[in-house]
Amino acid sequence: MGAVWAVVVAAGGGSRFGAAKQYEPLGDRSVLDWSIGVARAVCDGVVVVIPAADLGRRPLPVRRPPDVTVAGGATRSASVRCGLAAVPADAEVVVVHDAARPLAAPELWESAIAAVRAGADGAVCAVPVTDTIKRVRDGVVVDTVERHGLVAVQTPQAFRAGPLRAAHAGGADATDDAGLVEAAGGRIVVVPGSARNLKITHPHDLAVAAALLGLPVGS
Fold it and tell me: DSSP string spanning the chain?
């Protein structure tokens, strides 16, 4: 079977967090290092995308560097394209993962990759929506959305390399890569995600991640 490569996206500035959250310590490792670690355990190669200002300026706070480090772009989709450009042309499957999800277990990666190997153009990890969802306009509720069939999508997201590259070729932006592949007519399937696979967005999320890992809060 063809090679599987990971693109770990760590190019954000952390405006909501208040700092570059990908470099924040989580135990004795950085948030980014946790994400690189699981990518290395599952994939044949790893590309990490970091802010352009950091490329060559600071050593990555990781135990084992990725195979390739590249500068990101102005948007998340642009950053993924920068990472894709560094993935070898013969890669069969590409897994895109946000570095800000350091608790994504290897099983999530493996499930998404297996779904692509089975014939899907892409596979996303997702969990059912449990909260009531309302559509709001100008601060006023205009609709209560039926949550049956709704899921909250996470990363990692795995794709056949060809459809992913083709979906990105037009330079469009989306909140996730599955959205671009969907728009290009690709078939995306869902595999179970995990409530444990939280995204580090605000400082308190780091404390939650530490607790889930059994680390002293604040470590």
Answer: ---EEEEEE-----TTTTS-GGGSEETTEEHHHHHHHHHHHH-SEEEEEE-GGGTTTS--S-SS--SEEEE--SSHHHHHHHHHHTS-TT-SEEEEEETT-TT--HHHHHHHHHHHHTT-SEEEEEEE--S-EEEEETTEEEEEE--TT-EEEEEEEEEEHHHHHHHHTT----SSHHHHHHHTT--EEEEE--TT-----SHHHHHHHHHHTTPPTT-
Reply yes or no on whether the pLDDT at 217 is more than 70.
Answer: no
Domain-by-domain residue ranges, the chain? 4-212
CB-count exposure of residue 42 (10 Å: 0-12, 13-18, 19+):
buried
How would CATH label the architecture of 4-212?
Alpha-Beta Complex (3.90)
- For the question of whether the overall pTM of this predicted structure is more than 0.85, the answer is yes
Tens digits of residue pLDDT in 30-84: 999 999 999 999 999 999 999 999 998 878 889 989 999 999 999 999 999 999 9
Integer Cα distance of 148 and 129 in angstroms: 8
CB atoms within 10 A of CB 172: 13
